[in-house]
Amino acid sequence: MKWNDTYINGVGAFVPESVPSASAVAEGLYDEESLLADGFAGAAVEKELVAPQMAVEAARRAFAGSGVEPERVDVVFHSGIWFQGVDMWPAASYVAAHAARPGARAFDLQQQCNVALSGMELAAGLLPGVDGVVLLTAADRFSGAQIDRWKTESGVVYGDGAGAVIMSSEPGMFRMISSHTEAANDLEKVVRGPEFSEGPSTGVIDIGGRFDHFISTGGMREAAGRLVEAVTTSVRRALEHAGSEIDDMARVIVPAVGKSKLDWQLQALIPVDIRKTNWRFAAAMGHLGAGDQFVGLERMVAEGELVPGDRVLLVGGGAGFTCTSIVVEYLGGRVSEAVPEPA
């Protein structure tokens, strides 16, 4: 899809301090073999705020740097892949009430780690009929007895944090040029595990065990091929709609997985030098669940890695399986260095 008059007016992030991976190894929380293979220097760990509160902080930073008033928000999309602080509760409504306005239409989105970018695509489609702006937030805090940020998933260390994007039809920090989503929904079975249950799991989530179960069914080769096809098609079509090649991209933002996975992805799926990606930030923070792309974009602006005219490719992927790719052009602007009051 090629987009016209679709802009990102502001980006914001809230990421707490990281716990060094070496410290986690010393405490027996993480193993040295994984540290050496994946290269995560640490994982961001939040000890007080729950995910929607972090989302509010990220949104406030986004507004502060955008020149857009929160009262203009018409729609709020909030997303995350893990527990949002309260069972059976609309986290998006909290974000809308505390970061925008109580009268905004607020929706919780769920599409695993692809949800932030697929949310941007949804927002772009809504903008022609929106009298104002769309606020998108993505936040996760990987705490509680059921999640182990160091071991839940092979090749991934989970970090806490939140990102926010403000979108409208008025020129802003970025112009959204194109996007494309590919889906292979029957691949949800890859991470489903052997059976359904009547209620939430009470034990530590073992994504690796679910993978192992699927592998035992003999369908991994076909699934891997279809995943590769979905990602490469998503990237190719987004670039085609933008009239660009991968080499035209000044930066590429990808899911924050460890180098054992990332090196293969950058060879087989997205042929780009790792130095053009968000890996430098990701290695220090960990995989932020739904927030990798929003925070990666904010960090690139904050650290002066972009100049006006630069094009950036954002790539997401989520169990299910869906992949959304988006091409944006940086028009200029800065992120706010102000630290808002806690929600």
TrEMBL record:
The keyword Methyltransferase does not apply. One of its GO terms (molecular function) is 3-oxoacyl-[acyl-carrier-protein] synthase activity. It comes from the Bacteria. Residues 107-182 form the Beta-ketoacyl-[acyl-carrier-protein] synthase III N-terminal domain. Residues 239-330 form the Beta-ketoacyl-[acyl-carrier-protein] synthase III C-terminal domain. Transmembrane segments: none annotated. CDD domains: init_cond_enzymes. Keywords: Acyltransferase, Transferase. This is 3-oxoacyl-[acyl-carrier-protein] synthase-3.
